[in-house]
Amino acid sequence: MGPSPEDTDRGPRSQLTDIGRSLRSYLTETGRTLRSHLIETSRALASHLGRIGRELPGQLRHIGRGLLSLLTHIGRGLTHVGRGLRSSLVGANRSLRSYLAGIDRDLRPYLVGFALALILTAIPFALVAFKPLPKATTLIIIGVAAAIQVLVHLRYFLHLDLTSTPRENLVAIVFTAILIFLMVGGSFWIMFDLHSRMAM
Fold this sequence. Notes:
Layout: H1 5-79, H2 85-102, H3 108-130, H4 135-157, H5 167-199
Helix pairs in contact: 1-2, 3-4
């Protein structure tokens, strides 16, 4: 007599059962690992957010006090305009110094960079809006302001300078600058070449 159909199906069925069990145990272990990672990540995130929440009100209170002191001094200086503009400027200068001295050292570079970025943005806008200079000079000034603004962003926002920057970061910055120069210069070269061919 030959083997019954149940005996022949028992082999693949047992294999499928074993595969299902191993897959179930693997998924269970993966779920446990993922759950533990998620718990650790959420705890670290909650701790970090709690620390930020504890430190932020103090920083905002300190900045608010300094700003209030600055506005108070400016207001006092404006009320005493009749006594002389010099005394009001001295008071505003002192209040500005005290305000800047009270700001946290980590926040000061961002404020300086923000002020420089605003100035370097306002100059090209004013030149384009009022047109006090010839077009070529205006374009040169806009290009110089843009280059200086890139340096301001690298220095004050990304905190990159030649003294404290690791060699890998410096190589990445130089490589990025070369790529930008090639892309922008190539685009200008193509556009000028097409313009000269169209003009013929």
